Amino acid sequence: xxDRGGWREAAPLATQEVHAGERYDPATGMFVSPIHPAVAxxxxxxxxxxxxxxxxRDRFHYTRYSNxxxxxxxxxxARLEGCADARVFASGMAAISAAxxxxxxxxxxxxxxxxxxxxxxxLLTEVFPRYGxxxxxxxxxxxxxLARAARGARAVYVESxxxxxxxEVDLARVAAIAHAAGALSLCDNTFAxxxxxxxxxxxxxxxxxxxxxxxxxxxxxxxxxxxGGVEALRPVDSMRRALGGVPDPHGAWLLARSLKTLSxxxxxxxxxxxxxxxxxxADPRVARVHYPGYSGMLSLELASGGPDAVARLCEGxxxxxxxxxxxxxxxxxxxxxxxxxxxxxxxxAGRLGITDGLVRLSVGIxxxxxxxxxxxxxxxxxxxxxx
Length: 387
Known about the structure:
The chain is an alpha/beta fold. It has helices at about 15-20, 45-55, 70-80, 90-105, 120-125, 145-150, 170-180, 195, 230-245, 250-260, 260-280, 305-315, 345-350, 370-385; strands at about 85-90, 110-115, 135-140, 155-160, 185-190, 205-210, 225-230, 285-290, 295-300, 320, 330-335, 360.
């Protein structure tokens, strides 16, 4: 299939989403990329097989190494993130684990802001210490503390916005701190997506995604990705081959297909989330709303009622489904302390501000008025009518 390039380098994001990585087949006129379910790819000569297996020849060999559907998704996502390349994985945690393990070994240390997804927290605090890899955490936004923690560290790891408190991080400062210490900088960009933030432009070395969320966008695909420069990705690619955390080819194809509508979906998510945030901030039954003004993620704390009121709110919602994920076209609600951050100690959760009263909303693309009505009704069930 032919690459009909020429538009790519300066094209706006929406055009990149549709066309980047796609190929045109002049023999059939097909402009929708096919799916390649093959596990292995044939070779004409033994020399070709050996050279390809050794990585000295650029062609497909075995799907655990790569696959045309992987490359379609990777080229598209790399273009959107403004990176040289990308690698897809079976899940976000597979991507995060491989990215860190590719650059760490026993005796190394990670410096990280404290606000992290619960799965990443568990990786850094429970799994990595078994293999001699430590982590020094500092409060999110404490740049001086991060600079101290980065001295002697091999990697600096952040999220922005953070999960579930939606705190934003100065990524240019994080990258500068990491590089001054001779460390690799990594950022989880799941919540913002390249529509709202391109960490590589701020100097971040590796950009991570739980692609199961906004990138795939329909709550029906488990996939992850690492984007970055060629040198930073080379050991990540090797680690993917060694650990085998690759997606199914059809899943990678679905990711590429979903990326074509990313800007459209994110615009609708954001418009709805802004309306929801405005409603909640104006309601005296809500003590606090955490929302940076973009994307579809926000969290809230009720003014009274405790855990029972939280349960009534979550169970009283109808359009917002109670589920432990985010980023789909449907609106979702969860209590992070009971799902994504369940394994945190009470001390760690308290220090982070992740209480039993914190509710996280993933605002979907439904009709805005319907979502607002659903929240008003559920708040009434949880805390009674607003005064």
